[in-house]
Amino acid sequence: VAYKYVTNQLGHLSYILFTVTLLINACFSDGMFCAGVMGATSALITFVRFPVGRILRFFGAISYSLYLTHAPIGSTVINLSKHFGPTYHHKLFVLVLALALTVFVSYLIYRFVEKPSLNMAAKIRYHVKKKSLAVAEAANAARLFSDVEHSALNN
Fold it and tell me: Which of 51, 65, 80, 134 is the most exposed place for a label (fewest CB within 10 A)?
């Protein structure tokens, strides 16, 4: 909701109504604390402008690849690590390793799969042939005439 408001896809009144409705729903389903966190997050997104640096741009670029890879890579690394030791330092190391490996693989997927695919997709142009446009206009005219004729016969 906050994103739609910030990008001018949602008016002031709609934003307020949606936000209040979501917060009331969150109070009843998730509790007051969760609703407070949601409200604060919505207010931060809506009213506070953060500078976007290189790190945020990087994670924004690879975010879809991160979404796709975090569960399989993270769970595999964490499951494999259960065989080596239960100490706090070991768990921290495994967490950092899983995070680093996920970001690395996500970058590779972004760089060699996602980015080239987006570039190729941007080159695709769809052209409507004049003949198919004329056929579509004729079909619409026939449908309109049929509707008018049908309503005249029923009245």
Answer: 51
Query: Cα(155)–Cα(151) distance, rounded to whole angstroms?
Result: 6
The backbone torsions φ and ψ at residue 58, rounded to the nearest 5 degrees and listed phi first, read: -60, -50
DSSP reduced 3-state for 98: helix
Q: How far apart are CA 32 and CA 16, in angstroms?
A: 19
CA distance 34 to 28: 10
Cα dihedral 72, 73, 74, 78, rounded to 10, equals 100
User: Which two three-digit tokens encode residue 62?
Assistant: 């690879």
DSSP annotation of 7 reads: T
Nearest to 4 by CA among 60, 48, 42: 42
Q: Which two tokens stand for residue 47?
A: 């009213």
pLDDT digits (tens, 9 = 90+) for 6-59: 777 778 888 888 888 888 888 888 888 888 888 888 888 788 887 778 888 899
CA distance 13 to 17: 6
Average pLDDT over residues 61-65: 93
Residues 6+ apart with CB under 8 A from 91: 81
